[in-house]
Amino acid sequence: MKNSDVQYINEISYGYWKAQALFVASELDLFTLIGKQGKSGKAIAKNLGTDLRATEMLLNALVSLKLLSKSRDIFWNTAVSKRCLSKNSPAYQGDRIKHFHNMWDYWSGLGRAVKTGKPTAFYNAKKGVDRQRLREFISAMHNTATVQADEIYTKLQIKERSRLLDLAGGQGSYSVIFAKRNQNLKAVVFDLPDVIKLTKEHIKESGMTGQVTTKAGNCLEDSLGKGWYDIVLVSHLLHAYDATESQKILKKCWDSLIKDGIVVIQEFILNPSKTMPPFGTLFSLNMLMGTQGGSSYSAVEMNGWLKKAGFKNIKRIELGMDSGLIIGKKI
Known about the structure:
Number of domains: 2
Strand order of the largest sheet: 6-5-4-7-8-10-9
CATH superfamily of the largest domain: Vaccinia Virus protein VP39
Helix content: 40-55%
Shape: globular
CATH class of the largest domain: Alpha Beta
Order of helices and strands: HHHEHHEEHHHHHEHEHEEHEHHEE
Low-confidence stretches: none
Structural class: alpha/beta
Largest sheet: 7 strands, mixed
Number of helices: 15
């Protein structure tokens, strides 16, 4: 047996050690504390109220992960941690990291999910909406949107659009960013009532009230309108539903569009055999544990749903962060 094979298996096996180090550091807001000046382990521990020996162990581990650097006894942020892990950065990803941390418990039930085929996220869960977890989830989606919005705006030529339906749009991050760049764009964020409460907060804080509005509802049960929008954004929604439900959602999108309007699906797109890329395949397991019938899907599957709904001129655009766009046109 090659030692490299053993090393590869070991790296997978202890992968959660790395994740936990990041989770704890982010929860302590350690990277914001270090800032641009750099700090000693002693100063960091004193500021956080943590044990010095344990804190220095964590800091040294973060150096090995290239999330910090160390010169003599001073710890500094790296380019990655400055950009993604400090709350002073517009590209801050701490809310997304918190969301991954929140999934820890139900991922420990993967074996049970594989045996039963049933989700584990609701195992021993309280009835009703956990408002704190919901806010953390919506904030995590905002972290992603702030990084991707400009690229999507350019590749979709949003400047040429005037009426956007942001389906399951969360706190309206894409709508707000798009509307700020295109003053002629009127956007409607459609999501569940508990989410829309958070959406309204974000729209007000962003100063976009009027240009970006909201509609509360259920995308499976409620109408999305008839022949009104020239673009419908379906960002990271379909993976929460099974194939039949996804087909139904896309038909409603078709109904809501004017002639020559487009639907834009953003998803973690799998290859035809559904074995790559790694994030998409693992995210499919996440949907096994977190939804009743959701999954990651291949481009072949989503293209088929679009064609059945009536869309033509279907094309695909690659994005970063493991996701891509599939676009269909109503002719």
